[in-house]
Amino acid sequence: MLLFVIVASLGVVTLLVLLFSTHVRYAAGGVCMSTALLEGKTVLITGANTGIGKETALDMAIRGARVIMACRNVEKGEEAAASIRAACPRADVEVRELDLADTCSIRAFAQKFLREVNQLHILINNAGVMMCPYTKTVDGFEMHIGVNHLGHFLLTSLLIGLLRRSAPARIVVVSSLAHNFGWIRFHDLHSQGSYNSGLAYCQSKLANVLFARELARRLKGTNVTVNSVHPGTVNSDLTRHSTLMTIFFTIFSMFLKTPREGAQTSIYCAVAEELHSVSGKHFSDCAPAFVAPQGRSEETARRLWDVSCELLGIEWD
Questions:
Q1: Which element (helix H / strand E) includes 208?
Q2: pLDDT tens figures, 130-174
Q3: The dihedral formed by the CA atoms of 40, 263, 129 and 80, expressed in degrees to the nearest 10
Q4: Is 5 strand, coil or helix?
Q5: What sign results for the dihedral spanned by CA atoms 246, 248, 252, 258?
Q6: Contact, 73 vs 97, CB < 8 A?
Q7: DSSP letters for 151-172
Q8: Residue 7 neighbours by CB under 8 Å, 6+ apart
Q9: Long-range contacts from 24-29, C-beta under 8 angstroms, 24+ separation
Q10: Are 259 and 236 in contact (CB under 8 A)?
Q11: Phi-psi region of 264 (alpha: psi -120 to 50; beta: other; left: phi over 0)
């Protein structure tokens, strides 16, 4: 009986949405109003071949930055770069291969990057996976925590020296409202005991918030800032691993942000003049946002930092 009520309710809601879809549109949210230009600046964006990553890359290019698009699929990355050049003929964009699910790929990327690029002013850790079936990275990490957190943790550690030398510099970590529902399961970080794709995603997004806060603490006084962002509920291909989420996003698409709207907070944290000394904060709709209690725990952040270093076999002061 309860199942029938739920299904019937969803049906009514869906019908109403379809009937009024021409009159209803999601409030687009905050817009980055900064007119800051980025001539002479270098920006690195992971996962820049699609969605909010691509829109962020376009905005950075329009502002005059040299934009390096780090993508797992180079072919799709080149297609995205070509569309950016078509929209902005003077765009200085290039695509480099980076697979965040493979630490060897991350190290190779960083080694080549440091050899060929002498400055890095903005690093946007944007790439991510969401609600994928249980799979492991090349190194044996559960995919969500491996890509969304550990991959970016390693990449940032390898590039932090260059960011320090290029200061003032900024790091933007794309997290999610989902961090509110996440817990760091230190006893089963890789979900080997039990697995739920939604909870694994939430854990990784909480890890993003904790990483940004702890890194900001460690970088205090270096003129390198770190902030995390919630882009909003964006209509993108991030839900491709979940049939239910794909259907839901299709039905309620008029309530969702476009990738361009979803990119605004990342752009804001990357360029807004008023944030030049703001670090360790969380933003949504281009404004400070609530952080769940578990995302404010200094003890959890430090423990996650130590565990991450141990898993990756690195030392990071």
A1: helix 197-218
A2: 989 999 999 999 999 999 999 999 999 999 999 999 999 999 999
A3: -60
A4: helix
A5: negative
A6: no
A7: IHHHHHHHHHHHHHHT-SEEEE
A8: none
A9: 24/254, 24/255, 25/254, 25/255, 26/233, 26/254, 26/255, 26/256, 26/257, 28/257, 28/258, 28/261, 29/232, 29/257, 29/261, 29/264, 29/265, 29/284, 29/285, 29/286
A10: yes
A11: alpha
Q: Which two tokens stand for residue 142?
A: 């559960």
Which residues are annotated as catalytic?
201
Nearest residue to 137 (alpha-carbon basis) of 105, 170, 114, 109: 105
For residue 168, give Cα distances in angstroms to 41, 113, 278. 11, 19, 12
pLDDT in tens, 187-202: 999 999 999 999 999 9
CA angle 105, 312, 96 (to 5 degrees): 20
Handedness of CA 172, 174, 179, 180 (dihedral sign): positive
Pick the closest to residue 263 from 286, 237, 280, 240 (CA basis).
Answer: 286
Q: Which residue has the tokens 């962002």?
A: 229
- The C-alpha atoms of residue 252 and residue 69 are separated, in whole angstroms, by 30
